[in-house]
Write a structure and sequence with these properties.
Distance between the termini: 32 Å
Structural class: mainly alpha
Subcellular location: Cell membrane
Order of helices and strands: HHHHH
Protein name: Fluoride-specific ion channel FluC
Shape: globular
Radius of gyration: 16 Å
InterPro entries: FluC
Pfam families: CRCB (PF02537)
Organism: Pelolinea submarina
Oligomer: single chain
Number of domains: 1
């Protein structure tokens, strides 16, 4: 039962962080392209790569941090389902260039961010 509470607290914080970051980005860049989701997916991937590699390098890190950060916070913060939905809507509306740009960039930069975070995490 303790694990569910740890994950839940992380998820509440991650979902609220996603909401705040997305709103901040929309206020600055508008909503013609899902910049907020794009930024959230990139930073979430970077943080997950960093955290998981750092935890692997330092096994003394309490496994509850994995539940809180890896599953709870970052699981709720990153927005894969939103990214797929926004990409679909762009394609559905005939905005093929923007839709494909979002799909390609989010995937490619997500992989790059995971790798970057992973290697940074190994350095600590």
């Amino acid at each position: 039962m303790d694990e569910f509470l740890i994950i839940s607290i992380g998820a509440v914080l991650g979902a609220n962080a996603r909401y705040l970051v997305n709103g901040w980005v929309i206020n600055r860049m508008g909503n013609s392209f899902p910049h907020g989701t794009f930024l959230i997916n990139f930073t979430g991937s970077l943080l997950l790569g960093f955290f998981l590699s750092a935890a692997a390098e330092h096994p003394v890190i309490n496994p509850r941090w994995y539940l809180f950060i890896g599953i709870g916070f970052l699981g709720a913060f990153t927005t894969f389902s939103t990214y797929v939905y926004e990409s679909f809507i762009l394609l559905y509306q005939g905005q093929w260039g923007l839709g494909l740009l979002n799909i390609f960039n989010s995937t490619a930069l997500g992989i790059i961010a995971i790798g970057l975070g992973f290697f940074l995490g190994k350095q600590i």
